[in-house]
Design brief:
This protein has about 270 residues and is of the alpha/beta class. The protein has eight helices and eight strands. The radius of gyration is 19 Å and the shape is globular.
Length: about 270
């Protein structure tokens, strides 16, 4: 009978959750490790924002596609997801952690007519990843520090752009899906203006900006702004940045995530630019 049945929780193989504290808050750090011998230089690592929504999908996509890398172009990688103590796919704290403070007049209207949560924690949150999360992972796992990717979607994509524009040395690959450029556009413009002063001749950075075709409803011009930014980034400096834009047909702001992840893990698997 049903009441006599013993159930076990479903787990993702070779994955774990670590708890870390920042700003008097507890974060859940999701980590998955490939089930193969690491190369001499260590595994590539992908740092994933909004881990509660995408960590499992990305981990399983890599685990499946890396079985035949010669066909898929995907190689084993460590996935580190920065998430929250919740079972929901998204946590309200992302509004604070992924944004800068801007005048209310620059923000889109709240869909339910209310006020947006507090914002402005992007710089501190990026420092938490760089100064706390990354050293802990590198201490315990065989990480190739020359093949580090940061991945985010929507407001997470916005944070990836902030990271690229202000910390181009922190990662070698930046993937911004459906980035909410309109949210902090004035801040991004100023950061972009200062970026050339941060570039050094030894940097080789790859960036991917993407949108879903059905996101282009005319409100925020996300496709036009993302494509234009990719072009400007590629023209910047002395060729240190290789930026590309991709629009996925027939996908909306949410459905695009799964297509994006499959494309992103191939993008992140490419050898470092020379």
């Amino acid at each position: 009978m049903l009441e006599d049945t013993v159930y076990e929780a479903v787990t993702i193989p070779r994955s774990q959750i670590r708890k870390m504290t920042y700003d008097d808050r507890t974060f859940h750090i999701f980590v998955s490790i490939p089930d193969v011998t690491p190369p001499p230089s260590g595994f590539p690592v992908i740092y994933v924002l909004d881990a509660n929504s995408v960590f499992g999908t990305m981990t399983e996509a890599i685990r499946l596609q890396s079985q035949a890398p010669e066909k898929t172009g995907v190689y084993p990688a460590i996935v580190v997801g920065i998430g929250y103590p919740t079972e929901a796919p998204f946590h309200p704290s992302r509004y604070y952690d992924f944004t800068h403070v801007v005048p209310a007049s620059e923000l889109p209207a709240h869909p339910r007519g209310g006020e947006w949560p507090e914002m402005g924690g992007a710089e501190g949150f990026l420092s938490f990843i760089d100064d706390t999360v990354k050293p802990a992972i590198e201490k315990d796992l065989p990480v190739d520090r020359t093949r580090q990717t940061i991945f985010g979607h929507s407001l997470g994509g916005l944070l990836v752009l902030h990271a690229l524009l202000t910390r181009p040395h922190a990662y070698q690959c930046y993937i911004a899906g459906s980035p909410s450029i309109h949210w902090n556009e004035s801040v991004l413009s100023e950061e972009e203006r200062r970026l050339p002063s941060l570039l050094t001749d030894d940097m080789r950075i790859r960036a991917l900006l993407t949108v879903g075709e059905l996101e282009n409803d005319g409100r925020f011009a996300v496709n036009v702004k993302a494509q234009a930014m990719a072009k400007r980034l590629s023209a910047m400096g002395n060729g240190q940045i290789e930026a590309s834009f991709r629009q996925f047909p027939d996908e909306n702001h949410t459905s695009v995530l799964h297509v994006l992840i499959s494309h992103a893990i191939r993008f992140a698997s490419k050898p470092p630019a020379r």
